[in-house]
Amino acid sequence: MRTRSLLKSIGVVALMQLGGIAAAEENAATKAIEAAKSYSGTTLKSAEEAGLMAMLGMNITGPEWKQLTGIGLNVTEIPFEELFPKQMLEHKAGSGAYDVLTIGPSWVADMVRNGALEPLDPYIEKYGVKAEFDDIAPAFKDWMTFQGKTYALVVDGDVHLLYYRKDIFDDPANKEEFKAKYGYDLAPPATWKAFGEVCQFITDKYAPKLYGAGLINTGYMHFFFSERFRTYGGKFFDPETMKATVNSQPGIDALTDMVNQLKCQPPGAQTWGFGESLSALNSGEIAMTITWPPVARWAQGINADEQALSWVPESQVVDKVGYALPPGGHPELASGILLAVSPDSKNKDAAYLYIQWLHSKQESLKNVMRPLGLRDAFRISHYESPDFQNLWPTAADYLKTLRQGGEQGYSDLAILETYKYWDSMGRAVVAAIGGKDPKAALDDLAKEWDALTEQIGVDRQKAAYLEWAAKPSAYRQ
Amino acid sequence: MRRLGGSWGRSVIWYATSIAIVAVFLFPVYWIFSVSLKTPREIFRFPPAWYPSRPQFNNFWILIRDGDVWSIWNSFVLAFSSTMIAMVFGIACAYSIVRFKTGGENLAIWIISQRLLPPIAVVFPIFLIYAKVGLTDTYPGLILLYTAFALPYVIWLMRGYIQEVPIALEESALVDGATLWQLLWHIVIPLTRNGIFATAVFAFIFSWNEFMFALVLTRTEVITYPVQVSQYFGAQSTFWAKISAMSVLGTLPIFFAVAAFQKYLVRGITFGAVKG
Amino acid sequence: MVSSKISHIKPTRDTPSFKHILIAPAVLIMLVMSVIPLVFVIVVSFQRLSMSDQITSFEGLVNYWRIFSDARLWEAILHTLTITFAALPVELLLGLLLAFHFVGDRPLKRLFVALLIIPSVISPMVAGSMWRLMFDDRYGPINQIIGWVAGEHISILWTINSAWVYPAIIVADVWQWTPFMFIILLAALANLDREQLDAAAIDGASSWRTFVEIILPAIRPVMMIAILIRGLDLIRMFDIVWQLTRGGPGSLTETISIYAYIRGFQEFDTSYIAAVVVLLMILFSAILVFTLKKMEIAR
Predict the structure, then answer these.
(1) C positions 136-175 inside 8 Å of B (CB)
(2) Contact assessment for residue B111 and residue B89, using Cβ atoms and an 8 Å cutoff
(3) Residue B129: enclosing H or E segment and its boundaries?
(4) Does the ipTM surpass 0.85?
(5) Beta strands of C93-206 (E only): which ranges?
(6) Bridge partners, C48 (sequence order)
(7) A311 and B238 in contact by Cβ < 8 A?
(8) What distance in Å separates the CA atoms of residue A389 and residue A376, rounded to the nearest whole number?
(9) Mean pLDDT per 10-residue run, chain B (276 residues)?
(10) Does C187 touch chain B (CB under 8 A)?
(11) How are beta strands A153-156 and A337-341 bridged, if at all?
């Protein structure tokens, strides 16, 4: 409290005469809170991903924001798959049902083209603190702008990591047996082939007590397939003709392996989503999984007493989980969360200020350290924060791997109407996991993609694709 | 003696079979009630427990704490207001159709076919219009749609009930100098009172249970309970505690309504086509 | 059901205005909510509105032509018919068996019937959620029961595996709507002519012959109504499938309604779905007018 009142008085003085000097002391969180006080008594409506994401707003940041500024927060939960369509639909319906929008980076272009996002530059000019923008890791900063304008602020930097059981991997007997069988050292797998072998080895030895891996096999499948597909050397389109090339050999191999590697996963893993995979890791039932960053905090039992998390089994693997990049070394920068302001909002300033507060250096650090809310490090200062590095014994390791993942990861495909291409890809992958022949599933996918491209216009889509493919993070050659 | 024993034996078999049938059909309902009383930890227990080890109402309390129960209130407001409006206009319309043959057979068929069209085909154009005039996610917009949805139902059922009123009563009243309004108000409505109640209850239940219109047209302000339930199927976890508790809240009122109006049920669910 | 007795009031001086005043509000509401949207959707079906296009000029029949080459739509129609033709006979047969079981008076019968009707009055959306929970691989009782019979836990992935999704949907639908068939058929059986049945019994007619020659013709009209109502319901089916599979895995269980919802409200192919909706309306209205007139329900 003392710092805040000190800053406040500096602010007041600055307003009177010393603008230049006070700027050095500025902090985006405090600035947002001060400015927001003039909107006290209003209520913001925010659309958020159903479940843990939304719990942060409902249980923690919402009440805190209300206490700090007098502005209430009313959260609507929407399942991830429906976030984009519902928010777009809302804009088309124009009722201003949401002030604060939750979006993924690959939707920015489509939403901007449909006028569904408020340009934020004037607000940043008015309330923002420039210095804090330089602190954002480059991969995530790139998400916030489209054609030179800023439309959203990142609050969550997602990177897929491989989580593995150090006690199993470091066990001398395991090491010896594995080496004897496969001719190389037991270690977090660097290739997908090795992943399959390590997984099978552990399952053969420990099942049904412990399985080699338990991956996420339903929901978000376009992320997991995109990552694997590109690791196998696949390209989404032929850059000349814009014909879909997802059914090329790398695609078929990637999907076939994905399906085959279900064999070393627990029975029923086909239906596993984020929650099931996390539960299994926490209860010590699987030795590897590939998932989002908050899992590290959960497995470590941070905030385990939180009531809202009671469905997550208490971690039996504290201090036993190691972190590595997924096979291939280029993790998907899977979605990530940006917050934006709806142009239909009747309360744009307050909405922006709430976002700025969550995005600020000071406030975001708190949120990326708790497992609840699924927010993950996206600032250099997060990776380097001593508080975070000391949160648990291997936290520094985790942050290092995250940072590396951010630098080497694949960015999500972002073209025109990406949502439809993803939806189509997700359906194809789930169909293959459900028993359809991988090649047939991918052939159908390619057909659907071609039809989509045809409808949208081959030339228009080609231009968008080439622009995306030119990014180093697109294919990581 | 043999006969008596045989019929006794048959009775036992009959009751045993009946209980078995009822048990099978009610088991899913029992299951969701039981889940709603478990702790979240117990819900995610494998293998699942067939009854809550220590029943508790915390899942319901969380719905209240997080404000999710507003969706029940919204469902009530929408279903109640649209039913009331549809009853008033529907009874009048049905009376006119029955006693004055207004519009003939074609009007009657047009009315009922309005109700039998696929909801997606109804709501898609409505959405386009509502988006233009700003009626999405508002009470008036949803009440208007639900009224239009309930009207054909009310008219068809009331048509049947009014036909059962002996016309002689109205004719003799006319001879005595009653006005046409008085016929409707003093003869027809009192004589069809039970039918009116039953019709209103079933019209209410149909709107209460409706999912697709609400899914398309509600966001935050007037979200109904079925839409609220569907949103608990999150990507990280399926929130069974909330799903079960909200489903129980949405289902309980229907139990009471059906228990009270069981006699009219067959007529109610067949649009009056089968008298029961 | 069909009566020819005169039941209308002879016209007097006031009737013309009175009868029109009475129907005016109801008809007006229904007209506003059907005709204006219909005109609007027809207009939109000739434009080109989508996520990346906002072309409002007249584009001809482009969207209608696309329907013919849209394999996913035709598959959705096939899925819908599959569910309809699998579920409807089962519901009818089970409903009939239950009706025969419960016909006749016994103590507690009314209670059993009242309990049995519960599935059909629950919101289909809630019913879908219930069955999603029942079919859960680990936390649901179905696989648990199968496990008891088999002696070990067997993972049947009801909502994911392409071999099991249809059985899952059909089980849920049969569970919810068999009671509907049952209670209607029970009413029909209860109204049967006792004397005729007794006479048949004295003649020594076999119960199968009694059923085919006497009972079936007598309950036929009611049965047709039940089939009509359920058939229309099944063709419009959305809620249960949406909750169980959301049309998945892939697009394997997309019904017409789910397909139109996804394309119209998640992918914003506004003009194309407008065309689909226009065709759907025309098709449905034609079927409805034809069957309703034929069945003389309107009298």
Answers:
(1) 138-141, 144, 147, 153, 175
(2) no
(3) helix B119-133
(4) yes
(5) none
(6) C55
(7) no
(8) 14
(9) 63 94 96 93 86 93 89 96 97 93 86 89 91 89 96 94 91 88 91 93 94 90 92 74 94 89 84 77
(10) yes
(11) antiparallel
